[in-house]
């Protein structure tokens, strides 16, 4: 993951190359205060009107003990596809290393034609003692009001490790799905976790289910599962069992909480993605001067 391993040609900015087209680049190098800085910018053109403009900055110490790399890009094509993104990575003389990437995309579904915007990020780091963590998230917003969101986190220190995931979905008409899954291990044979899921209709009825579990060093497993059925009239059936012989099944009437908060509307999502939506195809000819050729720089993230 060291910065020295990064591709000077901005792999993330053009993971599919120039799509059978061509690439133009410009490079400058500066050495100041014992640091070498290389700046490169590129313009890729390809099939289907594909255009990708990218900017890379790479910094290296002469002794090779630290360095960093950063790439930003803006893409589009004839289909209306638009993308902004960046990648960062680095390492230092204390043994720490890291990388980070972020993307925002606008496109239409190939089959339904429904527009959607997707945002995602992924971060990772490790210290000199090999303790590491990672976090990634994504959001997908559809023009018909549907929304999908999720997060994944994990960490590791020597033999101990943990993971956590959660997600939620909105169908655009009031129904929701939410879930969480967590688990961990101590590196000595013991593992444990907890997960649950909740499905609700637009009128508030729905189901909940979950499980808490544990596996000991000797392999013995404990599990407790539970469920709830929620009715619009306020009655709730609660049931479950466990590996220790527990069992229950009862119906009660209670004031059931229903989170009626709504995700952003499609218009609100478009408004918050103004920079992404401003990307446009730019005609480029051999007569264009340098300023015109790099005119998409204003759209860099």
Plain-language structure description:
The chain is 5% helix and 54% strand. The model is unreliable at 1-11, 14-18 and 286-301 (pLDDT under 50). It starts with 21 loop residues before the first strand and ends in an 8-residue tail after the last helix. It has one domain. The protein has helices at residues 266-272, 274-277, 290-293; strands spanning 22-32, 35-45, 51-60, 67-76, 82-91, 97-108, 115-126, 132-142, 147-157, 160-170, 176-185, 191-200, 206-215, 221-230, 235-242, 247-253. The radius of gyration is 25 Å and the shape is flat. Its main location: plastid. Keywords: Chloroplast, Plastid, Transit peptide. InterPro entries: Alpha-glucan_binding_chloro. Residues 1-71, 281-301 are annotated as: Disordered.
């Amino acid at each position: 993951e060291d910065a020295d391993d990064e591709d000077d040609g901005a792999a993330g900015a053009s993971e599919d190359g120039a799509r059978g087209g061509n690439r133009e680049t410009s490079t400058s190098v500066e050495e100041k205060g014992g640091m070498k800085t290389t700046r490169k910018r590129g313009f890729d053109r390809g099939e289907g009107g594909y255009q990708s403009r990218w900017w890379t900055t790479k910094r290296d110490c002469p002794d090779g003990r630290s360095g960093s790399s950063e790439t930003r890009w803006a893409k589009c094509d004839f289909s209306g596809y638009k993308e902004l993104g960046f990648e960062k990575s680095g390492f230092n003389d204390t043994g720490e290393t890291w990388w980070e990437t972020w993307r925002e995309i606008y496109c239409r579904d190939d089959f339904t034609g429904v527009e959607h915007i997707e945002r995602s990020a992924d971060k990772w780091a490790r210290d000199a003692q090999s303790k590491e963590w990672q976090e990634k998230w994504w959001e997908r917003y559809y023009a018909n009001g549907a929304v999908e969101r999720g997060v994944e986190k994990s960490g590791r220190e020597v033999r101990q490790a943990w993971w956590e995931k959660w997600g939620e979905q909105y169908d655009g008409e009031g129904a929701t799905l939410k879930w969480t899954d967590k688990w961990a291990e101590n590196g000595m044979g013991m593992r444990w976790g907890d997960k649950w899921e909740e499905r609700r209709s637009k009128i508030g009825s729905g189901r909940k289910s979950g499980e808490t579990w544990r596996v000991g060093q000797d392999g013995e497993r404990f599990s407790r599962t539970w469920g709830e059925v929620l009715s619009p009239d306020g009655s709730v059936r609660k049931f479950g069992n466990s590996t220790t012989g527990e069992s229950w099944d009862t119906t009660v009437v209670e004031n059931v909480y229903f989170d009626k908060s709504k995700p952003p509307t499609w218009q609100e999502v478009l408004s918050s993605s103004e920079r992404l939506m401003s990307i446009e195809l730019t005609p480029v000819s051999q007569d264009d001067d340098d300023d015109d050729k790099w005119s998409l720089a204003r759209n860099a993230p």
